[in-house]
Amino acid sequence: MPKAPAPAKPKKGDHVFLVDGSSYIFRAYWQSMNQDAKYNRRSDGLPTGAVRMFCIMLWRILAEMKPEERPTHLAVVFDKSEKTFRTEIYPDYKAHRPDPPDDLRPQFPLIRDAVRAFDLPCIEMAGYEADDLIATYVREACDAGARVTIVASDKDLMQLVSDCVIMYDTMKDRHIGIPEVIEKFGVPPNKVIDVQALIGDSTDNVPGVPGIGPKTAAELIKQYDDLETVLLRASEIKQEKRRQALIDNADKARLSKQLVTLDDHVKLEVPLADLAVHEPDYKRLVAFLKAMEFTTLVRRVAEACGIDASEIEADEAVKAGAIPLRRDADMAAVAASEPVQAAVAEPASLPLTGGRMNRKPVAKSGEAGPKPGDFSGVPQAVVEARTQAAHKTGIDRSRYEIVRDAKRLKQWVARAQDLGVVAIDTETSTLDPMQATLCGFSLAVAPNEACYVPLAHRVGGEKGSLFAGDLAPEQMSEPDALAALKPLLEDRGVLKIGQNLKFDWQIFALRGIELGPYDDTMLMSYVLDAGRSDHGLDPLSRRYFDHTTLDYNEVTKVGKSRLPFESVEIAKAAEYAAEDADVTLRLWHVLKPRLVAEGMSTVYETLERPLLAVLARMERRGISIDPQVLSRMSGDFAQRAGALEAEIKELAGGPLNPGSTKQVSDFLFGKMQLPGGKKTKTGAWSTSASVLDELAEAGHELPQRILDWRQITKLKSTYTDALPGFVNPTTHRVHTSYALASTTTGRLSSSEPNLQNIPIRTEEGRKIRRAFIADPGTKLVSADYSQIELRLLAEIADIPALRKAFRDVFF
User: Fold this and answer.
1) pTM
2) Rounded distance between C-alpha atoms, residue 198 and residue 227, angstroms
3) Residue 353 has pLDDT above 70, yes or no
4) Which domains are seen in the chain, by residue range?
5) How distant, in Å, are the alpha carbons of 655, 740, 769 from that of 757?
6) At 358, phi and psi to the nearest 5?
């Protein structure tokens, strides 16, 4: 890094970097959630994830960029307070923004300490937002002939982009210049504030003109050049609703322009010359990084600067000045008193590593309890507090919203991106993702703050009609909706949460969207309670919140009155779908810390969750079958079943239906009086396979023939007749569904069709397997473990005799 021992005004050829610290703090916090969570807290429990990401960003700018791109001047700019000149002219400006996550609050001063440890200016001024200070530095730097890079992605700063100014999103490694601004707003940077004034901003509570979206706003500004001309000539506009909206809301538009226009003539307290970059005190920087326990960054800085990090002690003042996490009882009380609205913005604020082997033992009676600074019990307190808070915050379906246009959907997307976490659920026409119509989707960002976006609901044609009916009015088209949604679903800085998310993952993947990062509450529940079978949304809602969700059968009806979901009234569908997303988000807030408290985070994060996308891709790929092989086998089985029926009739001395349990039981244990019969709970004679096996082993021929007939007809009905019906008409492959959370042993199961239990021990079963074919040039390999649980037991328990048995018998 170049040295500048004295202040130096920028000149032509210099490169000024201005970091929007206030917005980057939140992005760093959410981004840290996508990293290995063990790095998000210090050993004493202090949350540090955002600080770590912030330090990494600064180091990359200062030391790891190409030499010609490195800054000559750099400052990190923060908001000083919420009261600014904008709130004086419009008190509702940014009035509804939620409180920051609890785990982020103690990191605000630490991030400022980090900036100072890098020996960089940390700039903030009362009465002004960081954006205004940045605008002023930009003007001065450009006037001096320097080029400027604004480290941010905030749309409000795009008005500053010019021939000498670009923006840089470090998290996406993306530069934003004039072409990117035009792509986003439809106008060049110098017209952005006019467009923003028309469309408003729900995030900052900028009113704008109702009914005017980005596309319309851009068209108006391109036609009339600026906002004032649009308003003065509004009476000329042909579209009546648009014309009237502009006339009625002219004052709001002018106010909005005031709110979005950045002040680039702030009387700066720190002159531009003082932003000149110089080498920091590397020992002081390493001492700070050590105190924060950023081991990897300590090594990188030390190696780059040629110093021995082992000789530098951690900064004791930083360690001592940090805010310690509260003890269990205090934490529980605070968490319980915090509104759930605030808690919603905390996706991964707890240490999420360590399996059962890493859990600390509970102190025995008479032993010393946890030492000061040992916060291993805090996660359980959070679980209890969040569960209690969830009980207090009832579900209010009347607050859910139906989103019918792109403008409103983009506002929901922006809200989710601001918070960094969103629950999502899809509603489809069928449970087969390969052939499903996407009827709509729901989003939830906070308790009772959820919406439903209908896409393909129809009116008429229900109740068994041969016709599908017409599309219901006021719905977005699927392409428009997904175009607005895709940036959110693929945003690596926003965590997507779902219940049985593999299905939703497939729905979006088939439409060109790869959803991530994500959490799945069904998988979380399964990891925590694998011995239970009720991991569906409805039972989880009853278990954790004592709330009964809307039943699917209640929404779609039953029997002959059953409606396909696309025929469900939109208002009713919205209640059902939005509630699913709302409950999913609430479950995540309870289950995530419970994973930590019970030491199961590693199992979930390294085994179960990564498998979701793998299985989804396997399902999409599918497997080929040879219908002709199955058809020939089906015919052969039919002949064999017919021959067996004739043989059974002959052995019985008359007609006997082998498929009738009553006829078989009456004949074997009534007429023939065979011994060894067993009765069921209803008092009838059992004809189960085990009973018939015992009779066959005793030398009775008829029971054996009945067993043979049952086996042949089951193979025919279950496989040779049924499998061709599962062939997808487009891919010509079979697409089964793998269940991640259905067995207590952790094994996968398969359904629609069940490919797990295709028999192999009989010749007929092996023939059926031959109908599954590999692509040209490849082979299908079927493998299974023998006694895997006992093998693991032998290894873990280190029982020599048991290990020897497996070696001698199976190898």
Assistant:
1) 0.55
2) 8
3) no
4) 15-275 (3.40.50.1010), 282-320 (no CATH), 397-620 (3.30.420.10), 624-773 (1.20.1060.10)
5) 33, 16, 11
6) -100, 0
